[in-house]
Amino acid sequence: MPKKRKETVRKFDPFRLALNIIGWGLAIFLSYYIVDSVFIKGYLRTYQLRKDGVCASAVVTGERSVRLGRHGNTTHLLYMFRVDGLPYEGESSSDHLRKGDSLEIVYLIDNPRINMSNTSVRLKCHD
Question: Measured at the alpha carbon of residue 13, what is the angle toward residues 9 and 14, in degrees to the nearest 5?
């Protein structure tokens, strides 16, 4: 006849409970932050640029390598454009251009710091 296993009753551990609450709270916060910053803001920015954006020409000023985790690296182009004589910068990952090349971008007239390459926005800039 097999031996009966002795049942053990776990004692209430407030420290473990606090760690679980903090852990779950942190996981929920990070999930919200990632969804908000990556997906929602990106889609809203693109929508806003499609709706209210103005086309302009920018000049590629350089490139920056961006790590994609275990999938390797990708290169983002850095570009500069001017609005009312003031310089603004942006970054694009979708164009295969070199330093000094021109790039069509879309920006918000009220806030030129919000800008994207037109290959991402797909706004009809020319008649």
Answer: 150
Task: State how many domains the chain has.
Answer: 1
User: What is the per-residue pLDDT across 44-60, written as a single tens digit (0 to 9) for each?
Assistant: 888 899 999 999 999 99
Asked if residue 125 lies in contact with residue 55, where contact means CB atoms within 8 angstroms, the answer is yes
Please report whether residue 60 resides in a domain.
yes
Residue 18 domain-assigned (yes or no): no
Tell how far CA 33 is from the center of its chain.
11
pLDDT digits (tens, 9 = 90+) for 20-76: 999 998 988 888 777 666 666 678 888 899 999 999 999 999 988 887 777 778 888
Q: Is the dihedral of CA 39, 34, 111, 92 positive or negative?
A: negative
Residues 6+ apart with CB under 8 A from 36: none
CA atoms of 44 and 35, how far apart (whole Å): 12
Number of H helices, E strands in the chain: 3, 5
Asked whether residue 32 is domain-assigned, the answer is no
